[in-house]
Amino acid sequence: MISRGSEQMKIGIASYQNQRDGVGGDLFTVSPLSSGGLRLVGIDACGHGRAAYPHRRTLERRLLEAIDQSRPSSVLAKLNETAVDQQGMATAMLCDLEPISTTSVRVHVANAGHWPPIAVLGDGEVVECRGQRQTESQRSDLMLGVDSDTAFSDGSVELLNPLAMLLYSDGLVELEIRQRGTSELYTLDRLKSDFRDVAMRLPGCSAWDLLTAFRETLNTTRNAATPTDDLSFTVITFRQPGD
């Protein structure tokens, strides 16, 4: 777990990874920003387990070289160059969290085909934090490795009274749920509902406690079905100074 304090807001982070075969294509990282905020990165190399691991490692090395770029979209552009050169595809997302007061945080997002982070606000609203397309010709939603000319854009949203945020790989959305002899996918709608319920039930808790409670909900929901993909997610909590 990581905690990042500021005069505006406290940010807590806890992560969970269950890589298929012990290694896999998911990569989630956190790095501090000079503003007092945090930069979160999610990368999901195409494939599962050991087949996806080499490409993920190549992107990880490139990420370390490009992580200090001022804009999230600039980091995606560097990663895309590497993915095209390696002829491997991946989805990726960068999310900068910038506390701006004791009750609000600005989220800057750039996205390359990755599932968007979701945030739960104090009133129970669930917000999808998405990057914004600049023009149709720029194809800013494309995955990494598809086209060397892809241009990525930066979107931002201000969250008022946020309780928690969730970053996650497609392995979470595509979990198999078993019910009455049938199976179905978990889906984004069900994910948002379950995460909202846990966040509203445990306001002000630590990121680790929220992650633990959410994992318990997942274990109950999926009825012991074994994940078929790498499964990774990161929980972020927001608290006012002094809490």
Brief write-up:
It is built from five helices and 13 strands. With 243 residues, the chain is of the alpha+beta class. It has one domain (2-239): Phosphatase 2c, domain 1.
Compile the SSE list and pairings.
Layout: E1 2-4, E2 10-18, E3 26-32, E4 38-45, H1 49-66, H2 72-86, E5 90-99, E6 104-112, E7 118-121, E8 126-128, E9 155-160, E10 162-168, H3 170-173, E11 176-179, E12 182-185, H4 188-201, H5 207-222, E13 231-239
Antiparallel strand pairs: 1-2, 2-13, 3-4, 4-5, 5-6, 6-9, 7-8, 7-10, 10-13, 11-12
Helix pairs in contact: 1-2, 4-5
The total number of structural domains is: 1
- The pLDDT mean sits at 84
Structural class: alpha+beta
Read across the widest sheet, the strand sequence of neighbours is 1-2-13-10-7-8
CATH topology: Phosphatase 2c, domain 1
Low-confidence sequence ranges: 133-140
SSE pattern? EEEEHHEEEEEEHEEHHE
- CATH architectural group: 4-Layer Sandwich
* Ends apart, CA distance between termini: 18 Å
Shape: globular
Largest sheet: 6 strands, antiparallel
CATH superfamily: PPM-type phosphatase domain
Give the fraction of residues assigned to helices. 25-40%
At the first level of CATH, the class is: Alpha Beta
CA gyration radius, whole angstroms: 17 Å
**Tally of alpha and pi helices:** 5
The total strand number stands at 13
